[in-house]
Amino acid sequence: MSGQIEAKLKELGFKLPAAPKPAGSYGPVTRFGNLVVTSGQVSFVDGKLLYPGRVGDEVSEEEGYESARICALNALAQLKACVGDLDEIKRVVRVEGYVHSAPGFQGQAKVMNGVSDLINQLYSDREKHTRIAVGIHDMPLNAAVQISVWAEV
Hints:
About 30% of the residues lie in helices and about 25% in strands. It is an alpha+beta fold. It has one domain: CATH 3.30.1330.40.
């Protein structure tokens, strides 16, 4: 039955946004064979970046978690734009996460749980994804979090 993942999103209180346009000279998502990979997704909502700055400084760990969830919603929107229906996703294979971190901040894994918790709720009947959570000093657009998602269709 089509639309089950989006129905779960709605039950969780989320609405799938329109797929954000890329901020540069690249494609927002690509498909090769049975894999679909998003470009870096940041916490754009209605064209505005939420949570700019470094986590552990201008952005709290909790706000970083929320930023990561918004990134996940944007990545899901890109996946849907590519494959037509989120139910076509057999599983999320990998999440790559970059956290714009203040010096000494080491909570990158907790911030990235904002992505993983949402994906695991939506695709709870499927194998869990692998993940990387990296702290970096500078981020394009001064975004707090940026993610890329690899999915199998």
